[in-house]
């Protein structure tokens, strides 16, 4: 199968972006383009690749972030024939002349690009307020989820522009994407009048004998969970509703805890599967290399590098390039 972007060259200006959120979003968009078969050229400033020293750092040296985002790209300059270019406003103004499709990443939109961090984006968009429990301190989303989501939006816009043909400027707002990630909470506030701030949850992460188990269930699953645990204290009338279980969270945890702690994750998973309960083991990163699901899906390479799960015409797109950034 011919990859959708095979034969096209994309200019990745992520290393030349002025702010980290923009750089991450642009670099992710370009990585997706490489996954779809494009040759991606990534020029770097004189100081070198900005991601090269960013955590997480690998035991043998170098940055896992750099490897993830840039492994399938070619080092090169801004001169050449490019089908598309991705960058922030300043980088595009300096290096995108003559390129038909331009993808511009900014904070709020064209001309509205104040200093911004990933933490600031999460705060402004409301994402920060929904992570954490009750009146506790808001918790930052781990990793670079907001920036990567903006990268996905940027790649989607680029693909649409290439499909349409002709000259096109695609604008992606980091704030808009972050707010979109939070759309369900905003909708609940607008439609149901909720405050949006999460209260105590009846979903739990519990210690098992060899790690932890994530227990995520709906109201319909509660009888099956009670049957699996076999403790009559769970059958009290005050625990039959989600609201009751949230109010009695500490008591529910105290009842469930010993049952889970006495069993391995595999034993708990088998018992839950037999009752069609949505329970999942919390895997250590090293375990992912040997997880059957990830092996079947080809998600991780032997060295632990994640492969993009990209498909075209129903077929998985194999990596065609293996260029060091």
Task: Sum up the structure in keywords.
elongated; 39% helix; disordered C terminus; six-stranded parallel β-sheet; Rossmann fold; 325 residues; three-stranded antiparallel β-sheet; alpha/beta; 2 domains; single chain; formyl-coa transferase, domain 3
Write the H/E string, N to C: EHEHEEHEHHHEHHEEHHHHEHHEE
CATH homologous superfamily annotation of the largest domain: Crotonobetainyl-coa:carnitine coa-transferase, domain 1
CATH fold description of the largest domain: Rossmann fold
Given this structure, which CATH class of the largest domain is correct?
Alpha Beta
Beta content comes to 5-15%
Protein name: CoA transferase
Pfam families: CoA_transf_3 (PF02515)
GO molecular function, one term: catalytic activity
Outline of the structure:
One of its GO terms (molecular function) is catalytic activity. This protein has 325 residues and is of the alpha/beta class.
Could you explain the architecture of this structure?
By secondary structure, this protein is an alpha/beta fold. The chain folds into 2 domains: 9-190, Crotonobetainyl-coa:carnitine coa-transferase, domain 1 (Rossmann fold, 3-Layer(aba) Sandwich); 204-282, formyl-coa transferase, domain 3 (2-Layer Sandwich), CATH 3.30.1540.10. It is 39% helix and 14% strand. The strands form 3 sheets. Strands 3-2-1-4-5-6 form a 6-stranded parallel beta sheet. A 3-stranded antiparallel beta sheet has the order 7-8-9. A two-stranded antiparallel sheet has the order 10-11. A hairpin with a 2-residue loop joins strand 10 (311-312) and strand 11. Helix 6 packs across helix 7. The radius of gyration is 23 Å and the shape is elongated. The protein starts with 8 loop residues before the first strand and ends in a 9-residue tail after the last strand.
